[in-house]
């Protein structure tokens, strides 16, 4: 039975977290203490320093040689089973990759680091800290990487489908990605140059947009450096639509050169931490004055696909097709790489809150042939390159890896961390938890609507998060033999509010960000009674 003292201890752990969140909310919403730009700086500190150091602090203190195999197996089994069921649904019932990613994020990825450690420690004891740290390590290294892989795969398939319609994409033999291309997430316009060799194989080079096809109108746009997106509240609100304009078409020698200029809010380049910099930081323009000296002649992707044939060396080693696209343009909540003239259409995310099965349209069929994709090995190299580059620029990746390495060394040879370094880390880690919740409160205050996806979708997501997730976790935990407090810990941690990283990925890649935003904000409010309810029911 749960005594009054136990309940009070739990509230002592939860209330301070929510206090920091609501103070931040009020400081922006009611008292106007912070401007959006100042919020961006605070969140930047949280993403780059506070949360990575907090992760390192917990991971480095956890004994990796005393891992709870059954607890880890139960968590892995629950996530894997959800992924398998959603994959079968996506394939057999044409649910689609988009909803597979979103539903997997909502159902299986809770806010373990910030909410789980203090809350479960107050409920069931100090031993839960080690269990939660183990889940944090697995979540950061395995599950967030898998989620990032799925997002990059989706972005790559959309880019290929829109620019190589029909069977043309099957001839792609190689992707060359410039070093400054970090991701296909659409934060920056990408320029792809394709070259067809004498054997009919296509080599594609992907780079950040620096110039466009010749022509007065397009060249004048390419010669203008883009301003920073850090201007006003539009970049902070999940309800703000991306801006898109119709393609600009110019004809040069019978070949269409198509330039797609679509602007969308961009986020900081960091990911895979429990609390993330929700607001972007100013970035330098992508414009490179050194690259505009030589004009680039372009042929549209559609023209290339329709006239797909080998080129002789006499044609100056092949014809290059160059196009620019912005995969981050959010049209009806789905991220598409160009080829859609959206004009002044309202780009509200609300249209994403329906379970719609995507039918094949004309863009999937070219000359009566279904859309093809490059060979699996080519696609795998492309996606692994993008994933590795994105992870390499994520501070939480390094904090998790370094924390794990230090714990392996320190517990193997009983090496103590020098007090000078230990205290330096601790002073930031102690602030990390409160700053993480403070950052979340700032994010909530900068949204125009708490329930961005609509009431029906919010209820469905909350049911998945707080009912389906714990049920699946309880089944897998019982199946592997968890009992007592460890079983209760597994169930309650599955009922924690949704993690921040899935929302960050959804916002960057333009996939149902309204749903994930509602899961973060509304989930924090629902999680208080939900976790207390599970705690009371399991204690009876």
From TrEMBL:
May act as a component of the auxin efflux carrier. Belongs to the auxin efflux carrier (TC 2.A.69.1) family. Its main location: membrane. InterPro entries: Auxin_eff_plant, Auxin_Efflux_Carrier, Mem_transp_PIN-like. Coiled coil: none annotated. It is a multi-pass membrane protein. NCBIfam families: 2a69. One of its GO terms (biological process) is auxin-activated signaling pathway. This is Auxin efflux carrier component. It comes from Colocasia esculenta. GO terms for cellular component: endoplasmic reticulum; plasma membrane. It is found in: Membrane. The chain crosses the membrane at residues 6-28, 40-59, 71-92, 99-119, 131-151, 396-413, 425-446, 458-481, 518-537. Keywords: Auxin signaling pathway, Membrane, Transmembrane, Transmembrane helix, Transport. GO terms for molecular function: auxin efflux transmembrane transporter activity.
């Amino acid at each position: 039975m749960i005594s009054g003292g136990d309940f009070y201890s739990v509230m002592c752990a939860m209330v301070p977290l929510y206090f920091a969140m609501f103070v931040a909310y009020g400081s922006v919403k009611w008292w106007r203490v912070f401007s959006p730009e100042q919020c961006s700086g605070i969140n930047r500190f949280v993403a780059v320093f506070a949360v990575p150091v907090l992760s390192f602090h917990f991971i480095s203190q956890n004994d990796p040689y005393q891992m709870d195999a059954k607890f880890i197996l139960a968590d892995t089994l629950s996530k894997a089973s959800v992924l398998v069921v959603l994959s079968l649904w996506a394939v057999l019932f044409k649910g689609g990759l988009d909803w597979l990613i979103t539903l997997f994020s909502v159902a299986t990825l809770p806010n373990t680091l910030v909410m789980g450690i203090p809350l479960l420690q107050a409920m069931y004891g100090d031993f839960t800290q080690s269990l939660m740290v183990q889940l944090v390590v697995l979540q950061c290294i395995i599950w967030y990487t898998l989620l990032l892989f799925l997002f990059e795969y989706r972005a790559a398939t959309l880019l290929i489908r829109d620019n190589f319609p029909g069977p043309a994409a099957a001839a792609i033999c190689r992707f060359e990605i410039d070093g400054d291309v970090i991701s296909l997430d659409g934060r920056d316009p990408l320029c792809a140059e394709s070259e067809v060799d004498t054997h009919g194989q296509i080599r594609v080079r992907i780079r950040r947009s620096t110039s466009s096809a010749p022509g007065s109108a397009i060249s004048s746009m390419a010669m203008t450096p883009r301003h920073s997106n850090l201007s006003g509240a539009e970049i902070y609100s999940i309800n703000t639509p991306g801006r898109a304009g119709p393609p600009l078409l110019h004809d040069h020698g019978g070949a269409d050169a198509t330039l797609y200029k679509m602007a969308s809010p961009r986020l900081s380049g960091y990911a895979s931490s429990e609390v993330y910099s929700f607001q972007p930081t100013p970035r330098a323009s992508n414009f490179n004055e050194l690259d505009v000296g030589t004009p680039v002649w372009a042929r549209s992707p559609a023209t290339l696909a329709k006239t797909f044939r080998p080129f002789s060396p006499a044609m100056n080693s092949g014809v290059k097709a160059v196009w620019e696209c912005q995969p981050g343009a959010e049209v009806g909540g789905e991220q598409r790489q160009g080829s859609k003239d959206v004009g002044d259409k309202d780009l509200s995310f609300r249209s994403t809150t329906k379970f719609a099965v995507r039918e094949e349209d004309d863009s999937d069929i070219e000359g009566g042939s279904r859309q093809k994709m490059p060979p699996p090995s080519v696609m795998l190299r492309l996606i692994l390159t993008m994933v590795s580059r994105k992870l390499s620029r994520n501070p939480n990746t390094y904090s998790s890896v370094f924390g794990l390495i230090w714990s392996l060394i320190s517990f193997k040879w009983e090496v103590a961390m020098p007090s000078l370094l230990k205290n330096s880390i601790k002073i930031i880690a102690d602030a990390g938890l409160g700053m993480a919740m403070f950052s979340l409160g700032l994010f909530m205050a900068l949204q125009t609507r708490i329930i961005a996806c609509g009431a029906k979708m919010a209820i469905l997501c909350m049911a998945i998060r707080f009912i389906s997730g714990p049920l699946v976790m309880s089944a897998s935990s019982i199946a592997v033999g968890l009992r007592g407090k460890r079983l209760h810990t597994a169930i309650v941690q599955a009922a924690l509010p949704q993690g921040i990283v899935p929302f960050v990925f959804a916002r960057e890649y333009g996939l149902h960000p309204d749903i994930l935003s509602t899961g973060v904000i509304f989930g924090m409010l629902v999680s208080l009674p939900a976790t207390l309810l599970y705690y009371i029911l399991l204690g009876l």
